[in-house]
Amino acid sequence: MASIWVGHRGTVRDYPDFSPSVDAEAIQKAIRGIGTDEKMLISILTERSNAQRQLIVKEYQAAYGKELKDDLKGDLSGHFEHLMVALVTPPAVFDAKQLKKSMKGAGTNEDALIEILTTRTSRQMKDISQAYYT
Questions:
Q1: Half-sphere exposure of residue 43, counting CA atoms within 13 Å on the CB side?
Q2: Residue-range domain boundaries for the chain
Q3: Where are the extended beta strands (E) located within the chain?
Q4: Between 20 and 30 A from 109 (CA), which of 12, 31, 34, 96?
Q5: C-alpha Rg value of the chain to the nearest Å
Q6: Rounded to a whole number, what is the largest CA-CA distance in the chain?
Q7: In terms of domain of life, where is this protein from (predicted)?
Q8: In the prediction, which pLDDT does 95 show?
C-alpha cells in the first residue's frame, strides 16, 4: 500500500507477517466485555506502522460494523485512551486536529504549528488542509 505518510523517517517499520484481520480480531477480543487487555492493545498498535494501523481500522469496521476509535473511546480513559485513539487516527486528520487545537482560545501553541507546518510535504499539507476543513 503506497502512502504519502510512509517513508524512511522514524523507527516503526512494517510488522512482518502482518494480517489486518488477525489484528482486528485480537483488538476486538482485548476490548470486549468487562476489563481491557491493555497489553494486547499496546503490543498491536505500537508495533505496526501507520499504514498497517489504517488497514486494521478498515478491517475492524468491515468485520464488526463499528469504528475502532469509537470502541477504544468507549472502553478506555485518560491519557491511555488519547494515545490509542491517536494511533488509529489517519495522519492528516491527526495533524488537522492538532493545528486546530493549537490555535484554539487565547494565544497559540507556536511549537505545534511550526512542527506541523514546516515538516510536511506539499502533498501532506493538501491532505491536512482537506481534513481541517472537513
A1: 8
A2: 20-88, 91-132
A3: none
A4: 12
A5: 16
A6: 48
A7: Eukaryota
A8: 93
Say how far apart CA 29 and CA 23 lie, in whole Å: 10
Query: Smallest Cα–Cα separation from 68: which of 50, 47, 54?
Result: 54
What kind of architecture, by CATH, is found in domain 91-132?
Orthogonal Bundle (1.10)
Task: Kindly report the backbone phi and psi dihedral angles of residue 18, in degrees, each rounded to the nearest multiple of 5, phi listed first.
Answer: -70, 135
- Rounded to two decimals, the pTM is 0.81
Give CA–CA dist 71/31, Å, rounded.
8
What cell numbers appear for 102 in the block?
493549537
115 exposure class (CB count in 10 Å sphere: 0-12, 13-18, 19+): middle
- How far apart CA 111 and CA 80 sit, in angstroms, is 23
